[in-house]
UniProtKB/TrEMBL annotation:
Biological source species: Acetobacter peroxydans
Superkingdom per UniProt: Bacteria
The keyword Membrane appears for this protein: yes
UniProt keyword Transmembrane helix, yes or no: yes
UniProt entry keywords in alphabetical sequence: Membrane, Transmembrane, Transmembrane helix
Name of the featured protein: ATP synthase protein I
Positions of region (Disordered): 1-22
């Protein structure tokens, strides 16, 4: 009878420790793979956004600089903003397309 009480107490103690975050549970291989996939997806999304934004900023800066230098209105700004946007889309397309070509 005493052994049954000890077993019950230790199981309740372990459950309470897990609820309060006092013990670290070992993760299965599936959980580790899922966390790795989440991190990879978030890093891919961050990189895609950075690619788009940087290409657009560079295009706008070149266009603004040419307009300022040549004294034109917004001709080069619009042109290079469109080119920068196209370059950003192309970079993201290269980033996310499947790489296994046979």
């Amino acid at each position: 009878m005493n052994g049954k009480k000890d077993e019950s107490f230790s199981s309740r103690l372990k459950a309470a420790e897990r609820r309060n975050g006092l013990t670290v549970e070992e993760k299965t291989a599936d959980q580790v793979a899922l966390e790795g996939a989440d991190k990879a997806l978030s890093s891919l999304a961050l990189r895609a956004g950075t690619e788009m934004l940087s290409a657009l900023v560079v295009g706008v800066a070149i266009g603004w600089g040419l307009d300022h230098w040549l004294g034109t209105r917004a001709l080069f700004l619009v042109l290079f903003a469109l080119l920068g946007g196209c370059a950003g889309v192309l970079n993201v397309w290269r980033l996310v397309r499947p790489t296994d070509r046979t």
